[in-house]
Amino acid sequence: MTEFARSNALLSPTLVIALALGACSAGQPTVAAARMVRDNPATLNLLDPIFTDHMVIQRDQPATIWGQAEPGTTVTVRLGIDSQDTTTDDDGRWQAVFAPHSAGERLALEVVTAQGVEQRVDDILVGDVWLCSGQSNMEFPVHRALNPGSEISGPHNPTIRLLTIAHDSQVTPQADHADPDVWQIASPDSVPDFSAVCYFFARELQARIDVPMGLIDASWGGSQIEAWISADGLRTNGDFNASLDTLALYATDRAAASAGFGVEWEAWWQDAAGTTPWTDEAVMAEPGQPAPAQMGDWRSWDIEGMDRHLGMVWFTRQIELDAVQAAQDAWIDLGGIDEVDASWVNGQFVGATFGWGSGRTYDLPQGSLRAGSNMIAVNVLNTWGAGGMVGPDEAVRLRFADGSTVALAGDWRFAPVPSSIGSPPRAPWESVGGLTGMYNGMIAPLEHTRLAGMIWYQGESNTGRADAYEGLLETLLADWRNQFGADMPALIVQLANFGALADQPVNSGWARVRDAQRRVAERDPRAGLVVTIDIGDRLDIHPPNKQEVGRRAARAALHVLHDGAGTGWGARPRDARRADDQIVLRFDDVEGGLHAMSTDAPGGYEACNADDCRYVPARLADDHIVLSLSPDAGLISHVRYCWADAPICPLYDGAGLPVGPFELAVVRE
Which tens digit of pLDDT belongs to each residue from 5-45? Predict the structure, then answer.
């Protein structure tokens, strides 16, 4: 199980329908009318589904309108008082580009074909459109933030408009969203389930920039950054070409791609562990111990160590079949699995799937089974919370082409995998753990949408491979700017504090990701950083104080948008210079001086060489930090500050913003 999204999905279809009906009853019938147009095969996608009542288009930029009709159709497009004629191409796609409009204008959009088919969208505002994306801390809704009652009841500014992009992962880039939603006016009905960070950011920013705000939330809990980058973008990184080739094969030949991934998985395991637990011989040997008869979360088994186990577990089972059963086409249903499985039948890889408790079914063509004993092996990877083959019992079975079934619940054996084995490869077509799928399904369909900027809140799922994050984040920004505009502002929310307290220096993937986020933001003149190291919760990966995240993001946005002095995110480290037994840390963009809170000897500083790091005494001197080294300190290559999963960071500036974690190379004077 990974993160909050498993139990806190986005708007359900029932709620979406209820909101739409509520809009109609309030005298706003054209949302329903637009849906009827999209549901009518004769006019399907005349306008792209992103165009609905109450939307916002970006001010001061050309407005692109697009959609679909029969190839060769003449389409008249009217935006406000402007009108254009265009003709669909051979694929039936059309688009029209209008001159920029000014903030505050209220427009209507009409599209009419030469055959008289018409679609209309009303109550379009012109303002700033922001794309909010990432994993569960971006998806985290207003109704779970601090003071939800008062935040939901309002008041809400009706010029803030909300659009949630439904979860979707696709192998290839899509032209349209698979489950399009409609734009909503901010209200007690629409705000509760919307992204808290995104909403609070817009509310704060609108108090400074009085224009309508259009917010697009495209986020997915547990997702890795690789899932949000296009295939072309990932190829520029250079580390994913083989997996991207497998993904491309999967688009045309799923069986061949799956078989190839099975070979890759088996090779990884044999290299890491030196065994073959999926083979007949291994299953016959019945490794491990009997699992409880009823399928379920392994934390509930009352077996020592399993209540805390995170990682992999092997499940194996034997089943006897007769000749008639073995001769048929068949399917194996493994029930719900949390969260990633790799599965074999009679030593043959049959599939790998990600899902938080979702059912697994794999094809077993003729020849896969045999009369007599058949061997099943399932490797389950769980990285958070509940895990295992969770059933229900009746969903775990073999199904045959003649309609008969054989139950598979019970009689499983299990063997936990030591963490030293590492993490297995992930199928590139996975959703949260795969490559490019979320870009294809959720970002690519935004196509020609013009934006004021983007907010990115992600990284928790990449802390296990933190060294690669800096390059991937730069790749994502370049990739999205290629779609939305080369100078698009980008706000990066740095990971909050979460996890174990440290009383000794540690190698922290969380700290490494935070420093990567800082480095990318510092090099990028159109980026801002949102430091949250002091507003997290070390026991909760989803800290509820999203209001302060939104406030700091708005502050950073104002600096980026208006080329303000400094960074807008607080004091940042400039360099570390050593002279004899001292290292002086200097800072830029210090507003109101540096302050060590609740201490006269600020802590959290480490001096490091190639082998290890040690805490060192520090003192605050004007706007510098002076580190004192012991006489035997020797060569110090770099220094670190607040370098842990959940560090305590006492250094702030006069504006009340914390100095975030950092690592700096030491320069000898």
Answer: 433 333 333 333 233 333 333 333 333 333 433 444 444 56
Answer for the pair 130, 214: CB distance below 8 angstroms, yes or no.
yes
- pLDDT digit string (tens) for 150-202? 999 999 999 999 999 999 999 999 999 999 999 999 999 999 999 999 999 99
Q: How far apart are CA 251 and CA 420, in angstroms?
A: 34
Please report the domains of the chain, with CATH numbers, ordered by start residue.
Answer: 245-421 (2.60.120.260), 572-668 (2.60.40)
From CA 295, how far away is CA 393, in angstroms rounded?
6
Once rounded to an integer, what is the mean pLDDT over residues 333-341?
Answer: 96
The answer to whether residues 43 and 119 touch, using CB atoms and an 8 Å cutoff, is yes
pTM beyond 0.85: yes
Specify the pLDDT at position 31: 38
Helix segments in 108-168, DSSP class H: 136-139, 148-153
Tell me the torsion sign for CA atoms 530, 221, 311, 169. Answer: negative
Q: 3-state SS of 407-473?
A: ECCCCCEEEECCHHHCCCCCCCCCCCCCCCHHHHHHHHHHCCCCCCEEEEECCHHHHHHHHHHHHHH
> Residue 242: which residues within 8 A CB-CB, separation 6 or more?
none
Residue pair 30/121 in contact (Cβ under 8 Å)? The answer is yes
The pLDDT, as a whole number, for residue 44 is 52
For residue 628, CA distances in Å to 535, 623, 633, 649 come to 29, 16, 10, 18
d(CA 359, CA 620): 57
Q: Which residues pair with 618 in a beta bridge?
A: 627
**Which own/partner pairs from 574-577 qualify as long-range (CB within 8 Å, at least 24 positions apart)?**
575/664, 575/667, 576/638, 576/639, 576/664, 576/665, 576/666, 576/667, 577/666, 577/667, 577/668, 577/669
What digits encode the pLDDT tens for the residues 100-147? 999 999 999 999 999 999 999 999 999 999 999 999 999 999 999 999
